[in-house]
Amino acid sequence: MLEKMIFGRYIPGTSFVHKLDPRSKLSFVFLFIIAVFLANNAVTYGILLGFTLLVIFSSRIRIYFLINGLKPIIFLIAFTFLMHIFFTKEGAIIVDWKFIKIYEEGLRQGIFISLRFLVLVLMTSILTLTTSPISITDGMEDLLNPFKRFKLPVHELALMMSISLRFIPTLMDETDKILKAQLARGSDISTGSIKQRIRAVIPLLVPLFVSAFKRAEDLAIAMEVRGYRGGEGRTRYRQLKWHWRDTVALALLGVLVAALVLLRG
Amino acid sequence: MDISLQQVGYSYGRNTPFEKRALQGVDGTIKTGSYTAIIGHTGSGKSTLLMHLNGLLKPSEGIVQIGDTQITAGTKAKELKAVRRHVGIVFQFPEHQLFEETVEKDIMFGPMNFGVSKEESRKRAHELIELLGLPPDTAQKSPFDLSGGQMRRVAIAGVLAFKPSVLVLDEPTAGLDPRGRKEIMELFSRLHAEENLTTVLVTHSMEDAARYADNIIVMHNGHSVMAGTPQNIFGDEETLASFGLGVPRSVKLQRVVEKMIGRPLPVLALTEEDLATALARAASEEGDANA
């Protein structure tokens, strides 16, 4: 039932994007998110979309799979699109039918904001789909290292993140199992009034919380038993290496930013 | 309620890079009143198969016929709830499904979902607490305050409470101590006889399959590869071994004894008791022949 969700999933592979260093990927996505806001006309949005497609293509992840997994977000995008269409009242009227009036500026804004949304979500999905959770946290820890000076608990944050990411699939499986067990007892979360549906979630949430707490406790004990005592003096088995392709990726991003700055209206 | 499977196939995560075929071309019949064991190696598709027995999963291909209801890939969710009323599943580690404040309320959850009145549900809850050998004051306790074995019983009661006519058990004794295992298995065996249940047991234990079942389906790599009576299945040691499965301990011992006395015993000893009886008979025949 939940098997179509793609958040936090990682698809192993050997594409150009897969092989990038997590640090370069993280900074890439971070800078890209900022760069997206530079776009403000058809040409620059076109470039953004083209660039995103290029990244998807070089990650060798099937577009069909991406789109399928993004369905819940596509609903959100459609919602923003409609909001802009109906509530922006600038420019010439292009549709005037009974009480519905659509303005040129509204359509423009609607399309642009949805595109912005889509591009952001696609790019971040590509990051998590092509980078194992462990590498993401390793990269994150490394990038945040300078902030240690300001007493930021970098290692602890990274550990928390890797544990949460690690347990997403586990909890998903667990949810699926409990859901099936309750369905087998006649529980029904897909029909009935809103109130009934909300009530039907309780039999799902309580066991899930119970097992999550139990797991957390087991994990804490297992870590202590194996001598875990925080990040001080801890060495790494996986060393991060910066390759020429990481430089290339960031250079490409530089080209994108330059193009956006030059062509924006 | 007869259940029949016709060329049932199922894949997890269809159309994703994670697509995994779990079942292919599975055939099988589970007759009303039978006690069917489904055996097979880990990953052979047993658990996936059992979720087809009450419409938790719909077959990607083929037909699952449960009583008068036919379930195919296109069956609507509404029809499935009616099926679930008749087919109860006790999942592996069923205690993970407990959520209510009191044991009584948790047992009442199932029957009330299926439209049984509150009073009747409460009555059944108390009957089941007694039937499952739980202390009477358990009813008002929180299920999370019970021991593991007791939680298991409460969870089983939660399924029995809506009186399904088919009871599907997925390794109901996993993680219990030998005594707990025996008690639970004997309980299901008694229920099977007294309540005229149709029972389906998914198990790793050849001993349980041999002792309790009258019909066995063997799964291997998502295919149903053998079906028949325990006598037939466990008599064919070689074929079983090719699927990575063994025979019950009593049959193993019987083979050793047969080698020692130089002739086969007339029946296959599915349980230790059977073996003892067969040996005693053989010994007395021997005595008669010598006299």
Automatic annotation (TrEMBL), chain A:
GO cellular component: plasma membrane
Transmembrane regions: 28-57, 63-87, 107-130, 244-263
Keywords for the protein's UniProt record, in alphabetical order: Cell membrane, Membrane, Transmembrane, Transmembrane helix, Transport
InterPro entries hit by this protein: ABC/ECF_trnsptr_transmembrane (IPR003339), ECF_transporter_component (IPR051611), EcfT (IPR024919)
Subcellular location: Cell membrane
Location (main, coarse): membrane
Lipid bilayer topology: Multi-pass membrane protein
One Pfam short name: CbiQ
Domain of life, source organism: Bacteria
A GO term, aspect molecular function: transmembrane transporter activity
Coiled-coil stretches noted in the UniProt entry, renumbered to this chain: none
Alphabetized CDD domains for the sequence: EcfT
Entry's family note: Belongs to the energy-coupling factor EcfT family.
Physiological role: Transmembrane (T) component of an energy-coupling factor (ECF) ABC-transporter complex. Unlike classic ABC transporters this ECF transporter provides the energy necessary to transport a number of different substrates.
Subunit record text: Forms a stable energy-coupling factor (ECF) transporter complex composed of 2 membrane-embedded substrate-binding proteins (S component), 2 ATP-binding proteins (A component) and 2 transmembrane proteins (T component).
Name the UniProt record assigns to this protein: Energy-coupling factor transporter transmembrane protein EcfT
Organism in which the protein naturally occurs: Filibacter tadaridae
UniProtKB/TrEMBL annotation, chain B:
First-listed, main subcellular location of the protein, grouped into a coarse class: membrane
Domain ABC transporter: 3-246
Taxonomic superkingdom: Bacteria
GO cellular component: ATP-binding cassette (ABC) transporter complex
A Pfam family recorded for this sequence: ABC_tran
CDD domains: ABC_cobalt_CbiO_domain1 (cd03225)
InterPro entries from the UniProt entry: AAA+_ATPase, ABC_transporter-like_ATP-bd, ABC_transporter-like_CS, ABC_transpr_CbiO/EcfA_su, ECF_ABC_transporter_ATP-bd, EcfA2, P-loop_NTPase
Subcellular localization(s) per the UniProt record: Cell membrane
GO molecular function: ATP binding; ATP hydrolysis activity; ATPase-coupled transmembrane transporter activity; cobalt ion transmembrane transporter activity
Top class in the EC scheme: translocase
Keyword set, alphabetical order: ATP-binding, Cell membrane, Hydrolase, Membrane, Nucleotide-binding, Translocase, Transport
Keyword Cell wall biogenesis/degradation: no
Topology of this chain in the membrane: Peripheral membrane protein
EC number(s) reported in the record: 7.-.-.-
Chain's role: ATP-binding (A) component of a common energy-coupling factor (ECF) ABC-transporter complex.
PANTHER family named among the record's database cross-references: ENERGY-COUPLING FACTOR TRANSPORTER ATP-BINDING PROTEIN ECFA2, HEAVY METAL TRANSPORTER
Subunit structure: Forms a stable energy-coupling factor (ECF) transporter complex composed of 2 membrane-embedded substrate-binding proteins (S component), 2 ATP-binding proteins (A component) and 2 transmembrane proteins (T component).
Family classification: Belongs to the ABC transporter superfamily. Energy-coupling factor EcfA family.
This protein's name: Energy-coupling factor transporter ATP-binding protein EcfA2
UniProt source species: Filibacter tadaridae
Primary gene name: ecfA2
